[in-house]
Amino acid sequence: MRAQFVLSEIGVGLRRNLTMTFAVIVSVALSLALFGGSLLMSDQVNTMKGYWYDKVNVSIFLCNKSDAESDPNCAKGAVTGEQKEQILTDLKKMSVVDTVTHESQDQAYKHYKEQFGDSPLASSLTPDQMQESYRIKLKDPEKYQVIATAFNGRDGVQSVQDQKGILDNLFGLLNGMNWAARAVMALMLVVALMLIVNTVRVSAFSRRRETGIMRLVGASGFYIQAPFIMEAAVAGLIGGGVACAFLVIARYFIIDHGLALSEKLNLINFIGWDAVLTKLPLILATSLLMPALAAFFALRKYLKV
Q1: DSSP structural state of residue 189
Q2: Is the pTM value of this prediction over 0.85?
Q3: Which of 60, 161, 255, 287 has the smallest count of CB within 10 Å of its CB?
């Protein structure tokens, strides 16, 4: 096979169907940009999970005098010193517990004033209305139920709360958005494949006399197919390059500069450039192989002369 002939045929095919080739490039670029974005979103969610789940605490809130009057869980009165000592002792004996921190009513009041000092309720609260608590860091955040089972309903305990539940709702929302992006990506891939198939068929139809003659003089099927397959592959590769450029530019302007979310949202541990760069070869390989395979199967009937 002469490479010069194949390359010249690729150029001719791309020029003849310029509008459809442009449509293929755009659809491939959009679908693969969504594909790469969904992969990066998954990485971001997993990174955030690893970062935040390692920091979550289980809080055991103790009954105070106000709770004893209004909360059924504190019907036996405010927590006593003996009950607090017993709770602390039992916590330290549990293998799932990493560290235990005690927060007094004064400390709770101080933290509340720091976070919600501007609210109207803050001026009416006093330290004795705040709840003492034990903040427990677990060796495995998934073991929250062990603490809840052991201390819920115990005398002096108002409630056991797990911060992981709040994070689960957030990550559930992010995962839902990620699956929505994947659904749109799948739709765009279908559109791209249909455009590729139609483009190849139009190109093959416009050159049916040439391919018929080549078949009659003994040219192999692959020799006839090669220019069409490579046309689709080149268009797809250009679209893949555009998708890669879009992901790199988006990462640069959204996280590092422009919006600069990494500076404005310090509490979020954003994915690094390594996560982006490792996805680019996969996107380029997909952009090359997907159109080539689509073209190969679309052309099979045109070999019958």
Answers
A1: H
A2: no
A3: 161
